[in-house]
Specification:
This protein is an alpha/beta fold. The chain is built from seven helices and twelve strands. The strands form three sheets. Strands 3-2-1-6-9-11-12 form a seven-stranded parallel beta sheet, sandwiched between helices. A three-stranded antiparallel beta sheet has the order 7-8-10. The two termini are about 20 Å apart.
């Protein structure tokens, strides 16, 4: 089933408290996918913020476009982190745009954790075109792409396509809706919950 229209983009602050339990469960699974010595990309977003908050006792390099994610990583002594430059999107608490994509070209990561506001058979989508371009560029710089997404975003197709579903390696969710396992299997995507 697909939503008739995507939800209006909520601000980062508005999204912080929504589905907090699910985001924590998703983040725990994602942290388990990170090994010492990894170079990771943590996208902006409230679920990836939770990953950053739980990323303790890991010696990693982290790259992000999220302001809150960078602030959370700054408190982790074993995490070396880099914040991409770019055009600030205050509602998203992130940077995006051509400058961010240009900065990204200097890095390669083993795992990219990419947020999405929609996930369907057509692919992963977000509300902003510039953000979609940056996320798509990240996919090209990552060896493995993980999409941490809560169940409310599954079956939603938002404004801007990031990538087709077969460009994703793993989907991590909590309380997966019926049909997600079949959808992931059809596109060769691993699923964790």
């Amino acid at each position: 089933a697909l939503a008739l229209r995507p939800p209006a983009e909520r601000s980062f602050v508005d999204r912080l408290g929504r589905d907090a339990e699910a985001k924590t469960a998703i983040a725990r699974v994602c942290v388990d996918l990170v090994a010492d010595g990894d170079a990771i990309y943590l996208d902006s977003g409230t679920t990836t913020l939770r990953i950053a908050e739980l990323l303790t006792a890991r010696n990693v390099n982290a790259l992000t476009n999220g302001i809150a994610v960078a602030a959370a990583l700054a408190e982790k002594p074993t995490v070396r982190h880099t914040l991409l430059g770019g055009v600030l999107r205050p509602s998203a608490g992130a940077v995006a745009g051509a400058l961010a994509v240009e900065n990204l070209a200097r890095f390669t990561v083993s795992t990219a954790f990419i947020g999405a506001t929609g996930l369907t058979a057509e692919g992963i989508t977000v509300a902003d075109h510039n953000e979609a371009q940056l996320k798509a560029a990240v996919l090209g710089r990552a060896r493995r792409v993980v999409v941490p997404v809560d169940a409310s975003k599954i079956g939603i197709s938002d404004f801007a396509l990031v990538a087709p579903l077969d460009a994703v390696d793993t989907v991590v969710t909590a309380d997966a809706p019926p049909g997600l396992a079949e959808l992931c299997a059809r596109y060769g995507v691993a699923r964790h919950s």
